[in-house]
């Protein structure tokens, strides 16, 4: 059971052709899907007392898919596909001669270099979205998300097909989500980002994170209280998070540079585009039990990315490095913001992959 199955399962209750309810979710003709960035299943279970409303809901654990990171998971939400098919294989990845930061749709390491004209979002992710399919079937489809995401490359790539309502905070997010499902056969995807950012800055489970979790719980409760009769609120996440205690800085380890033409990804999962076959052995020896270091073919054959299309294959890199335990590979010079963070995600641990699927029927 993966994040890619959530929206198709919900759209089956709205009579969208080809939408299968593989998750066996309740059927409703008015649905709000609230995605809370960074709300891992393990984190919510460990701190249930700080989120009494969410903890009271019907709950199950599903899988975010690999890599367990926002751009990839939002693409899975929007397309009903996993990374190997939709091709958004991480926060940053190679597309031709460019390295794309999918969150900002800019050149990785240079957020001022807008790539929307060079790497057209609808070409980078060409599959029809589930929102487009729903809208074509007559469903009123809305996205309620931060204002600055309205015309972003990622929104165009993976969320196209919905009417976008930009919001500035909790209040208009809650009211916007409720307003979007007042008519028959309506679906609203609502997105909240701040819990993830607090987790990155202070660490998941920190006092700051716990207080933000209380706010998220209140947000979900307020949406549920205002939903029309016979409607459905579903809450999920895009990934969990771990606190990093073991940092390796690629930029200060010359041994790791040899034979690496391009390094992409993020601190918990790295893709190495290599010029030398020795890279795999060097990285395996250097990292030891701190990472799974495998050839791309091994990761594909093991099903890490789900089914893999030619679109995604070249973006993955020759070597995949999935960090274990609390280790991260930072880049102190090239990615200074990451170096200051405490919380991370992206790899294959249960803390990162397990996400909640919570259901409230009005």
UniProtKB/TrEMBL annotation:
A molecular function (GO) term: hydrolase activity
SUPFAM superfamilies: Alkaline phosphatase-like
One Pfam family from the record: Phosphodiest
Top-rank taxon: Bacteria
Full protein name: Phosphodiesterase
Organismal lineage: Bacteria, Bacillati, Actinomycetota, Actinomycetes, Pseudonocardiales
């Amino acid at each position: 059971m993966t994040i890619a199955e959530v929206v198709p399962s919900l759209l089956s209750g709205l009579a969208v052709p080809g939408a299968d309810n593989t998750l066996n979710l309740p059927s409703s003709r008015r649905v709000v899907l609230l995605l809370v960035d960074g709300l891992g299943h393990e984190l919510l279970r460990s701190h249930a007392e700080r989120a009494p409303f969410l903890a009271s809901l019907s709950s199950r654990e599903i899988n975010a898919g690999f890599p367990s990171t926002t751009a990839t998971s939002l693409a899975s939400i929007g397309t009903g596909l996993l990374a190997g098919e939709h091709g958004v294989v991480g926060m940053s990845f190679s597309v031709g001669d460019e390295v794309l930061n999918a969150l900002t749709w800019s050149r990785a390491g240079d957020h001022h270099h807008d790539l929307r004209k060079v790497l057209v979002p609808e070409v980078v992710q060409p599959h029809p979205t589930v929102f487009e399919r729903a809208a074509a079937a007559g469903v009123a489809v809305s996205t309620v998300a931060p204002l600055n995401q309205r015309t972003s490359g990622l929104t165009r790539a993976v969320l196209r097909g919905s009417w976008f309502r930009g919001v500035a905070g909790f209040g208009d997010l809650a009211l916007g989500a409720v307003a979007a499902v007042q008519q028959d056969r309506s679906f609203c995807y609502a997105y909240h980002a701040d819990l993830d950012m607090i987790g990155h800055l202070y660490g998941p489970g920190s006092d700051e994170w716990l207080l933000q979790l209380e706010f998220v719980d209140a947000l979900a409760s307020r949406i549920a209280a205002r939903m029309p009769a016979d409607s459905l609120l579903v809450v999920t996440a895009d990934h969990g998070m771990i606190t990093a205690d073991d940092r390796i800085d690629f930029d200060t380890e010359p041994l790791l540079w040899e034979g690496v033409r391009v390094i992409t990804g993020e601190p918990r999962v790295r893709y190495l585009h290599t010029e030398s076959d020795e890279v795999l052995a060097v990285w395996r020896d250097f990292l030891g039990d701190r990472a799974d270091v495998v050839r791309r073919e091994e990761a594909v054959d093991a099903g890490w990315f789900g089914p893999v299309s030619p679109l995604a294959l070249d973006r993955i890199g020759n070597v995949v490095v999935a960090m274990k335990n609390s280790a991260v590979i930072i880049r102190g010079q090239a990615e200074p913001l990451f170096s200051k963070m405490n919380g991370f995600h992206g790899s294959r641990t249960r803390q990162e992959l397990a996400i909640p699927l919570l259901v409230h029927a009005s």
